[in-house]
Amino acid sequence: SAMAFWKYRWMSAYLVAPHMIDKWISCDRGIQLRCDLIAIDTMISDTIDILAKMIRADRKLGETKYTAKTIPFDYTLPRHIMNGFPGFDSVNINQQCAFMLPLLIKQMGSYYVDNSVSVGIPQDMCTLPLVEVGVAVEREYPDVGNIWLSTNNPCDANMMDNAAMYRELSNDGQKAVHAFTTALMYDDPTTKELNVHEVYSAIEFLEEHLGQKFNWDTFTEAMKLVNRLNAEELERWDIYANTNFIGLNAVCQGFYRIYFYQQSANKYFDKSSKKLLKLFYQGVDKGINTIPYARHRAVAWSCGSTYYSHGAIWLYNCWGISLVINMDSLTGHNLINTSDRESMIEDVADLYARTPMRTHTVGGNRHLLQVFETARKFNCDMIMMYDDIGCKGVAGAQGLLEEELRAHSDEFHILWMPHALMDHRTVSPMDARKQVNDYMFTVLKEEPLDPTLVDFDDSEGW
């Protein structure tokens, strides 16, 4: 609807989606280009589907009937249990209205950060909730559904935005709201029972307010599809770990996994996963090396930037650093036992607790330190630490982390790359590149593959 573009500023970001694609596939060739385009096509198709449902269901644009058949839910809350309510469309509002914006246009996140700060939210925190609140301050979330399914999200920073998000997404309390919370210490045996209780509580809430009983048959079939697609993903990880066929570049790989986790298995991922696995095996059988200029195989840890997501492409083209796997890819891949309802809910509860960002950065320092085990599994010689300066969780463990990194310095090169997640003004892409350049020149004594990429001004670029 053209009305949505006039109503919501964030909609304009999607007009430059082709530019985002160009950034993500820069210097791709051959079979890797085919794989990356398949993954991007999946994400774009899924996004178009969600945007179409939001616009169709939006009361602000005149809708009154279809909206009752939608289930709006929070970012980092996967839609798995909503497969048990056939006939209802579930809509991840925050992902499309907030999270995606700096990926498309880097300046868009800053606009909404300023809106949050203008109403008293501290600026020195994670900028993801700041952008979410900024959209709420502008009253730019579509008015969808009769309920709101929220969550406690990955970290404490999101607690700052609860009141603003509640007011906007519940229509100032007119809609029923359920907080689907999960324990941060997700692998502590004492929290497993709590997580199972939360899944059942969310199902009961949906049953009550949708007027429909939970359908175990459709839910079970959906979880079987999740299992199959996760099994295919694990096969691709084996290829990443044991060959130089990196079928999906670092940007496409990470966001493809995050999208899959959020949206559960649907027709878009079902179709693309089969194609990707076939191409991966073709590449391996032909002995294709998709990273011929790689000097270092790296695992990327902690949360990466959104406004400079394509920085991973620069790392390879300038310095020969291939990000083989990244932290947020390693989410939601646990297989679900579908043999009986009790086991299935236990496994689904565990999947809900292991959200992007949370899985490896909170709930105990042991999760953060899984970086070394992961680096070994994927045959990496370098650890790329994304340093989100607004992330208080990782900052709290900084001393321990640096101590452990030093202890492993004989096994791995440790490279820090700073960013501010969604606000490019705090740490610009140029600032991030400078820190990498300094490390590569002074510590590793290496020369760039392409000297023209070492220093350039992209401050005005999208």
Please give the structural blueprint.
Blueprint: H1 2-7, H2 17-24, H3 30-57, E1 70-73, E2 89-92, H4 93-99, H5 101-104, H6 106-118, H7 127-137, E3 147-151, H8 162-169, E4 176-180, H9 189-210, H10 216-242, H11 250-263, H12 267-285, E5 296-301, H13 311-319, E6 321-326, H14 341-353, H15 358-361, H16 365-368, H17 370-377, E7 382-388, H18 392-396, H19 398-407, E8 413-419, H20 429-442
Parallel strand pairs: 1-2, 3-4, 5-6, 5-7, 7-8
Helix pairs in contact: 3-11, 3-12, 4-7, 6-7, 7-8, 9-14, 10-12
What does this structure look like?
- The protein has a domain at 2-212: Rossmann fold, CATH 3.40.50.11890.
- It has helices at residues 2-7, 17-24, 30-57, 93-99, 101-104, 106-118, 127-137, 162-169, 189-210, 216-242, 250-263, 267-285, 311-319, 341-353, 358-361, 365-368, 370-377, 392-396, 398-407, 429-442; strands spanning 70-73, 89-92, 147-151, 176-180, 296-301, 321-326, 382-388, 413-419.
- Strand 5, helix 13 and strand 6 (321-326) form a beta-alpha-beta unit.
- It has 20 helices and 8 strands.
- Helix 3 (30-57) runs parallel beside helix 11 (250-263), helix 4 (93-99) crosses helix 7 (127-137) and helix 7 packs parallel to helix 8 (162-169).
